[in-house]
Amino acid sequence: MTVFRTSMRNFFAHKGRMALSAVAVLLSVAFVSGTLVFTDTMNTTFDKLFAATSSDVTVSPKAAKGADETSQTGKPESLPASVVETVRTADGVKSAEGAVSSMSVTVVNADNKNVGASSGAPTIAGNWTRNDLRSMEITSGHAPRGPTEVMVDADTAEKHDLAIGDELRTIAVTGDFRAKISGIATFTVTNPGAAVIFFDTATSQRELLGDTGRFTHVNVTAAEGVSNSTLKQDVAAALGGGPYKLQTQKEAADANRADVGSFLDVMKYAMLGFAGIAFLVGVFLIVNTFSMLVAQRTREIGLMRALGSSRQQVNRSVLLEAVLLGVFGSVAGVAAGVGLAVGLMELMSSMGMELSTQDLTVKWTTPVIGLVLGVVVTVVSAYVPARRAGKISPMAALRDAGTPADGRSGWIRAAIGLVLTGAGAAALLMAARADEASEGSVFLGAGVVCTLIGFVVIGPLLAGGLVRALSAVVLRMFGPVGRMAERNALRNPRRTGATGAALMIGLALVACLSVVGSSMVASATDELDKSVGADFIVQSDNGQPIMPQAQAALEKAPDIAHVTEYKWVDVKLTAPDGTTESDGIVAADPTYAQDLRRETVAGELSAAYGKDAMSVGDAYAKKHGVKVGDRMSVVFPGGRSAELTVAAITSDDTNVDKGAMYTNITTAQRYVPADKMPKNMIMFVAAEDGKEKEAYAALKGSLAAYPQYTVQNQTDFKQDLKDQIGQLLNIVYGLLALAIIVAVLGVVNTLALSVVERTREIGLLRAIGLSRRQLRRMIRLESVVIALFGALLGLGLGMGWGTSAQKLLALEGLGVLEIPWPTILTVFVASAFVGLFAALVPAFRAGRMNVLNAIATE
């Protein structure tokens, strides 16, 4: 109990000094808890939606795509209407209803604006059925009663200011058709963002499937007392086999959940990864805090030892303070995490993904994980300072000798750090020289970990030289005040190294990702310049195939030399070695050989567009021993097979169509039934010589009625690629900002405790003539040089990681290394301002000290 009371007294006596460390724990735990609450809430939202929209048993074609996939043909897989009648006769069936659902549509309003979701969620069109009443209710107007009426969901109507009587144009594979809004249906569960429109059954069949006698699936309702599993067996017996997929409500919901699960998992683990980085940075803050608190309480610890306290009791006293810090920070962090999750939900809602706080899910595991993580990390971080406190001898402490210095341990630390850094550098070099990506990624991971730990360990050793070098450039111009700031930064290299290391981690990741991102853009741009001969690229913004009517409008544009079709056809390939694989082959016009300049290792690519000919990539050729002239067995959609001659082997040393196999589009049309032939996912256009500007304007004009498609010249395409990578990097930088904020708190805490530690010295400096302004400047300059030291380590380390990663990515075709010097220099200069900001409060408090009281401080 005495140890506990002592820990409580010390904790609350230094509560101001503990506050910033508690904030670091709070932020880290909040990020973990917020991530778990946010992703659990998303899971709950989708689970409720899929459970509400799934019937007791669903019958669909066996070849039907997943819930998040659009059809390559523009028409979803369907089954004959006779199946509905057959299902109705099955035992245990209360009702069976045919349904139509398609995501291969675009809906525009009277202003030709796409009313689909902007968040990446699909636009779903179909017929209104009784099953829809499970998740929706008509709140205005009525369901569509004919081909000129359409009903929309309330969320879409609100986002796009749609009202009853407004006209919508639906763009589908069968053509464009118009209908006026007759009703608005509201979801009774949360709709994460999909735009949903309904037609009457006949219109849905005719316009979405091209056949009035078919449905995409059958919704089956069980009779009273019949379980879903029993109903599934009875329906299966009635159908007697066939190309059908039967799912109970739970199975359908699980399948739909799996379709979006990978996206949710990537988001979850990415955010947890950044939370882990914040925890790692927080470790340095906590270590510094407890090290300085132990140093400042040296005499107090000596008195405790002199009065009979053992080493273990002193150790436990410090660790109990760490437990208290971890508990307070973690409890507040869990609460803040719930708030963070709500904030993320609001942010996602503003971006088009609707999430309701009514679905807010806080599992019991979330606070437990947050509390355990926060406490464990805090206690582990405080262990070394606590152990050091226990080693203080009573006599040394009473004469204020401080914590015991161990020169031998310093040399051992330096040796270990140098070995780790050297091993890490060697691993990064091996990653850069690897011949296979899988092998290189192992070396890259080992190199990143070893160099990071190595730099942390040898931080105090590096601090001496780098701080002096930085001081010569930055501090010497400030005269004696600058020299005092330099000496203060060098006074305790271990503390300076730990403080700089906290900032180093976040900036190392920023630099690494900047190098990789810039190199990706530069590599893609270089590849486009070398490989792409087409003047324009036409594709959809939302993954939709290019509809026939849009293609026809495109081909009529003036000043066009040629238009190249590009279709991805799923096939089964049998190589000469007898290996059969499911793969895809690109069916394109022969002009594609002009639009994309592919290098070949054997044969000519133009020959692959001959009759019953094809090409393969060199990786596939090496794996299966394929040579020019060999015959490949290809099974096309619809079941027809062909023997195609390999006329060319293309080089895979590229990042455009890497590994692609090509054949003439007429060859594919010869073996693929018309209703199974995929639509173009992308098209390439070449302008007549000297008519590029005119052709560009003409193409945009020809597709003006189809806002889902974009026309890009090579400059547009490069800028779009740059913007996409830039947006991704900005998101990553935003998440890394958490780690940098924690690092800044570390600088603030270190300076604040350092000011307390040097109270008497500051009083003496003021007494001999140092002004308040000079004192504040000295502390600010000390903060600046520590921040620049951390930035120098981090940026140097990050550029090393990024360079090694780029060399590894060169195996995938990203062969250009580009160091973004403007970004690197901006971050370095910004680090100085970070140091200035961190020193504001400690410098202000130091300037307010009473000189006489400071001198009298022991």
TrEMBL record:
Domain ABC3 transporter permease C-terminal: 274-394, 735-850
Family to which this protein belongs: Belongs to the ABC-4 integral membrane protein family.
InterPro entries, sorted: ABC3_permease_C, MacB_PCD, Macrolide_Exporter_MacB
Keyword Transmembrane: yes
Domain of life: Bacteria
Subcellular location: Cell membrane
TM spans (from-to): 269-295, 318-344, 364-386, 411-430, 442-475, 496-516, 731-756, 781-801, 821-844
Protein name: Membrane protein
Source organism phylogeny: Bacteria, Bacillati, Actinomycetota, Actinomycetes, Kitasatosporales
Residue span, MacB-like periplasmic core domain: 19-237, 499-697
Organism: Streptomyces scopuliridis RB72
GO MF annotations, alphabetized: transmembrane transporter activity
Keyword match Transmembrane helix: yes
Topology class, membrane: Multi-pass membrane protein
One GO CC term on file: plasma membrane
Key words, A-Z: Cell membrane, Membrane, Transmembrane, Transmembrane helix
Region listing for Disordered, in residue ranges: 60-80
